[in-house]
Amino acid sequence: MAEPITIGEIFGRLGELLRENAGLAAGCVVGLTAINIGLDAVSTGNVMALPAGLISLGAQYYLIATVLERLGLREPGGRNRFGAFWALNFVSGLGLLLGYLLLILPGLYLSARWMVASPAFLAEDKGVNDALGESWAITQPSFWAILGTLLVIFVPTCAIGFGLSLAFETLLPVLATAILYAFLFGAFVLSWMASVATYSLLRPGPQHLAEVFA
After folding, report:
1. Of 64, 66, 98, 141, which has the fewest CB atoms closer than 10 Å, so is most exposed?
2. Does pLDDT of 172 surpass 90?
3. Mind giving me the DSSP string for 69-135?
C-alpha cells in the first residue's frame, strides 16, 4: 500500500510541475478557451458538445503524457493510446456523473479515488480496469489530502470565474464567455497537472527515488 501524502506535498509537487511546464499549461488553457469560443460562435445549442469534448480530452491526453515523459515516468514517444484513454474517461465519467447525481458526496469520493487513473494508464501502459483499480488502491491512504486538493482547485476558481462572467455578461458578453472558459479550463488543467503530481508522489520514478535516498 502506498504511503499517505499530504495536501502540502501535492501542491508542492504541483508547483514544481507548473514551473517546469508553464508554457504547456498556459497553452492548453488559452487554446481550449479560444477553440470553445470559436465553436460557440459557429453553432448554437449542443451541436458542438462532442467535438469540444474530444478536443478537451486530446489536450488532457497530451498534457499528462508530456509531463509524465518529462518526469521520466513514461517512455518518450510511447504508443498512441488515445482511443483507450477515451474509454477510460468515458467509464470513469459515467461513474462520476452517477455519483454527483447521488447527492454530490459519492461523486466527490470517486473523483478523489480515481484521481490518478489517467497518469497510471499512460505511465504503466495499463488497461482501463487496471488503471482504475491502481488508482483506487494507491489513493486510499491519501483520500482526504487528494479531496482537499481538488476542492482547493475547483471551488474558488469556478466561483471567481462565474462571478466575473456574470459581472460582464450584460455589457460585454463575449468577454464574459472568455472569462468563464478561461477559469473553467484553468481549473481543469490544474487538476490534470495535480493528477500527475499526486501520481508521481504515490508511484515515484527512479529519478525521484534517487533524490529521496541520496
Report:
1. 98
2. no
3. HHHTSS-TTPPP-HHHHHHHHHHHHHHHHHHHHTTSHHHHHHHHHTTTHHHHHHHHT--HHHHHHHH
For the chain, what percent of residues have pLDDT higher than 90?
72
The residue that leads in pLDDT, 213 or 68, is 68
Query: Long-range contacts of range 6-13, CB-CB < 8 Å, 24 or more positions apart?
Result: 6/142, 6/145, 7/145, 7/148, 7/149, 7/152, 9/145, 9/201, 10/145, 10/146, 10/149, 10/194, 10/197, 10/198, 10/201, 11/149, 11/152, 11/197, 13/197, 13/198, 13/200, 13/201
List C-alpha distances in Å: 30 to 24, 33, 44, 65.
Answer: 10, 5, 22, 19
Query: Is the pLDDT at 177 greater than 50, yes or no?
Result: yes
| Integer Cα distance of 204 and 207 in angstroms | 8
Three-state SS at 139: helix
- Asked if 130 and 117 count as a contact pair (C-beta separation under 8 A), the reply is no
Q: Which three cell numbers stand for residue 192?
A: 490534470
What angle in degrees, to the nearest 10, is found between the helix axes of 128-139 and 117-124?
120
- What kind and span of H or E run contains 25? helix 22-42
Find out whether 134 and 124 touch, Cβ atoms under 8 Å. yes
Split at pLDDT 50, 70, 90, the class of 213 is very low
